[in-house]
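Q: Given only this backbone (360 positions), what sequence would you predict?
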């Protein structure tokens, strides 16, 4: 999973990056666009800890997520780069500081974050519209000639003409295009179709309610790719938290009324927004979490491990995570007849513990 951090200058993007990855990249000196940073992090997963213990595994391989802290906001190259990413984390500023300039001189944090978000929404719409217009223009010319691809070109042209008006009204494609039609548009990398998580960056002592933020969602696991989620973050605090060791972390968080570092939460939300889930494999050599689409079949899951396993697929032996816990592990679940033999088409569930049988 790859997530790009985007937003206006000095909103706290690099601070968020440091909070999410534990890096200590230098913050903006306000002279310009800033650097690009990239870092991979392990997705914390208590299920893996349990498996490691049960199997006395030598190696633990968590799922990984890559974060990219994008430099200066704006310009064709910037938006071209953003298009390459599977999901976006937007950061807008709601902290008050006389030392940190606002690129549009918006000084009241209670209102500025909403204006900044509205600007970002509008920019994304404009970028997507420009892309559609360029493509329509090109197709109008080329689809006149009878060629092998003429039929597809005409279909694409019709589709683009159909989705354009809503965008002209400022409606993101995620809202105007039916979910089952959205995959057809994947090749364009439209910005308003991207899974989106918005972080409103508060000062250390701010209360989200004072800034008009909606109460945080109760269950992070319920979100999917068509949802848009906005949550508060105290990025500067969280970046400090990321530098503490386990013992200090808990008391530091408690002092600020927080119950866990925000990284875990953002990863959970990211998984949901990108429509992803994990399944688990376990043995004495290695326990491992694998990332797949929600709704992926058993044979797709097998392919995530190795194409040979998918090719020679015989069956999947599956214990759900709930059964694994309820029966004290794989063997207990098997003795209680909770081990299931599933075929290629079985729809994988988050946390399934799996052994694939394959031949050849
Ligand atoms: N008070 C306060 N300042 C912050 C917070 N987050 C970032 N800043 C400050 O804002 C400035 C810009 O932060 P940076 O992460 O470099 O922003 P970027 O340009 O979006 O990458 C730095 O001086 C930070 O110390 C925050 O949560 N509270
Ligand atoms: Mg930066």
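A: Predicted residues:
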């Amino acid at each position: 999973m790859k997530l790009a951090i985007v937003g206006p200058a000095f909103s706290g993007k690099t601070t968020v990056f440091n909070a999410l990855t534990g890096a200590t990249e230098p913050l903006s000196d306000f002279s310009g666009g800033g650097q690009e940073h990239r870092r991979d992090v392990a997705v914390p997963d208590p299920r893996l800890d349990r498996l490691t213990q049960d199997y006395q595994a030598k190696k633990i391989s968590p799922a990984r997520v890559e974060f990219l802290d994008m430099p200066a906001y704006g310009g064709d190259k910037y938006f071209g780069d953003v298009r390459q990413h599977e999901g976006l984390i937007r950061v807008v500023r709601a902290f008050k500081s006389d030392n940190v300039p606002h690129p549009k001189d918006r000084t009241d944090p209670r209102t500025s974050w909403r204006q900044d978000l509205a600007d970002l929404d509008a920019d994304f719409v404009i970028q997507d519209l420009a892309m559609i217009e360029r493509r329509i223009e090109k197709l109008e010319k080329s689809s006149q000639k009878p060629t092998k691809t003429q039929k597809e070109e005409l279909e694409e042209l019709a589709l683009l003409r159909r989705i354009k008006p809503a965008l002209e009204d400022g409606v993101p494609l995620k809202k105007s295009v039916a979910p089952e039609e959205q995959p057809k548009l994947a090749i364009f990398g439209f910005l308003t179709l991207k899974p989106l998580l918005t972080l409103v960056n508060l000062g250390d002592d701010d209360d989200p309610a004072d800034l008009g933020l909606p109460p945080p969602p109760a269950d992070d696991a319920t979100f999917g790719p068509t949802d848009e989620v906005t949550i508060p973050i105290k990025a500067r605090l969280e970046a400090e938290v990321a530098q503490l060791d386990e013992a200090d972390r808990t008391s530091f968080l408690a002092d600020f009324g927080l119950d866990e570092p925000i990284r875990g939460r953002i990863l959970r939300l990211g998984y949901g927004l990108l429509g992803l889930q994990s399944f688990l494999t376990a043995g004495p050599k290695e326990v491992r979490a694998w990332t797949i689409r929600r709704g992926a079949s058993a044979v797709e899951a097998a392919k995530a491990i190795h194409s040979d396993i998918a090719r020679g697929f015989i069956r999947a032996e599956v214990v759900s995570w709930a059964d694994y816990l309820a029966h004290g592990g794989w063997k207990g679940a098997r003795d209680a007849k909770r081990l299931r033999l599933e075929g290629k088409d079985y729809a994988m569930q988050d946390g399934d513990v799996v052994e694939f049988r394959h031949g050849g």
